[in-house]
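pipeline/complex-builder :: batch 7 item 3
reading input block
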Amino acid sequence: MSGTHFHFHDPYQPLESPIHRLDPRVKLALALGFIAIATLLPPGAWLAYGLLGGTAWGVAHVSGLGVRRVLRRSVLALPFVLAALPVIFTAPGPAWWTFPLGPWWISVRAEGVVRFVSVLLKSWLSLQIALVLVGTTAFPDLLAAMRALGVPRFLVMTFGLMWRYLFLLVDEARRMLQAREARSVPPEAPSQRVGGTLAWRAQVTGRMVGTLFLRTLERGERIYMAMVARGYDGEARVGSLPPLPRGERILLAGGWLFLIGVLILGWAF
Amino acid sequence: MHIPDGFLSPTVALPLWGVSAGMGGYALRRASRELTESEAPVIGVVAAGIFAAQMLNFPIAGGTSGHLLGTALATMLFGPWVAILIMTCVLSIQALIFQDGGLIALGANIFNMGILGALVAYAVQQTFRGLLGDRPGARYAAAFASGWAAVVMGALATALELSLSGLTPASVALPAMGGIHALIGIVEGLITMSAVAFLAAVRRGLLAERPVAGRVPLWIAGLALTLGLTLLAPLASSDPDGLERVARDLGLIQAERSLWNAPLSDYVIPGLPNQALATILAGMLGALLAFGLVVAFTMRRRREGGSS
């Protein structure tokens, strides 16, 4: 929760590829299936992980996003791996090797290493397929697909509105940060403390949050008025997607069969 | 605190999806009593605003910086149910578009930071209001405490989920996550407090007049708070004397053990000694009993009051 985790550009890459042309419902259903299967796989199912990885990279390549780009972005979320680190030392089973750490003896356990690497791979694979999904699907298409897959109408509508104003408000926040920076003296070294106590700095940030919030709220009310003036009555009229063509249905079924096959493989071997 | 995919075992992630979906639906129903559906645009824009506000960071020390989560602030301004909806939207977009948190883990993330955060923040705010009244000082104290509590409880829930997934023992995860977030929570509390103070000074009506969507009865808030604290009490110290002593004196620990050991021995949280688990369970049972008595008493008094 500390530091910024966002990459503030629309991840969608408008390219021409079979993956881009694929129906968003098929893409969303298959991506969710992929992540679900990755979650359900047991630790140490290397062959199944390999198949999923091959699929993810194959799709990334065909989509024109490129394996390298997806790999580079997928590394950004890996710091969370720290949370899984203790399993190396606490898993049951025989110790691989034991080393002293101060007054304690720490053992690295085979079972723990297997579990740790498995979590790492599963998380990494899930992330890559999610990157491919948002990289090849424009957000309005994703919304329509969510609606088709049964996400409540209110939520889809709110996501849509949020998306529309997200970048605007992020820019607003950025301008505020820039303004603060312009009025502050940067520290000569990162460890050097400048500009008031922690409480004072938090107070300044709190006022910025308050200002941003007021502007947001006013903008929201203005938008609502404008929508009402244009005939909005609480009903979002989202264009519904046509029924899936035969080819796409076969692809969806084939994809799911493949994923279930991977799952069976993972548990059997 | 955004858990990526792959970290939670399915037995943890999928039930939490169910809980979050159910609670989200309930929040939607409660919120729609106050907000007409035509006001949904405001929720969408405010959610985008919270997302943007999470960018406003400030340096703490040694190159690290802190920023807002916003659950407590949203709860203070809109009440818990609208806040749950707002945070659900924020977290969903973060997971879906920016891969900040996983999609299968989204249920857990919504639960930790949205639902639990908003309910805990609301419980704290209601408790402060009940104890200190509507004075501005009480409001700022409530803003600070609820910001802190929402972050810390969310972190503890995250730690518990990770340890239930068999990744880290609870004896490591809970103190580590709780300790770090007890500090991060101070930042959250300070920012929330000064944002509330700013809004109170600039727009007094925003905090005072805005109807709270679906007011939770105070006793539910209190119950949630007590259960949360019960969960924390034995973890805070390695020798949880007070509560455990009471539980043992009442014979609750023995009873809990014989009950829970037989069919559910696999369900002991890894790393959390049986003793502490028993204490938590005993404490929760005790809290439930106490609240049952209070509720029964109040209802009886209300009935008597109605008949006279």
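note: Chain B touches chain A through 90 residues (CB under 8 Å).
queue -> next item
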